[in-house]
Specification:
Elements lengths: L1 H28 L13 H9 L4 H8 L3 H16 L10 H8 L1
């Protein structure tokens, strides 16, 4: 008897999982946001404040985000720089044009 109830519960659990997955798939196809919304922070302002000497705690308070989020934004920016996509890096062609002008 217990075995039969366990088997029915397992079948029902699998049916629930499949319905949830189908619903999430449909929501993605409709363009709905799944999960937590992305963090809204002015990354350029945060990076500029960091260049001006603000500490991580000061940045977190000023931009009303967690210190971990500040570290993540800085780490992502550092990764972008190492990939060669820093538009205003010292020695960049833009700086040379400004000096020549």
């Amino acid at each position: 008897m217990v075995v039969i109830v366990g088997a029915i519960a397992q079948v029902e659990r699998q049916a629930i999982i499949e319905r949830v997955r189908a619903g999430m798939r449909r929501a993605r196809l409709e363009g709905r946001q799944i999960g937590r919304a992305p963090l809204q922070v002015d990354r350029l302002a945060l990076l500029e404040d960091r260049r001006n000497g603000m500490s991580l705690n000061q940045l977190a308070r000023a931009h009303r985000i967690s210190k971990a989020s500040v570290c993540r934004v800085l780490r992502q920016a550092k990764g972008d720089v190492s990939k060669g996509s820093a538009p205003n890096a010292p020695g960049n062609a833009l700086d040379k044009e400004l000096v020549a002008a």
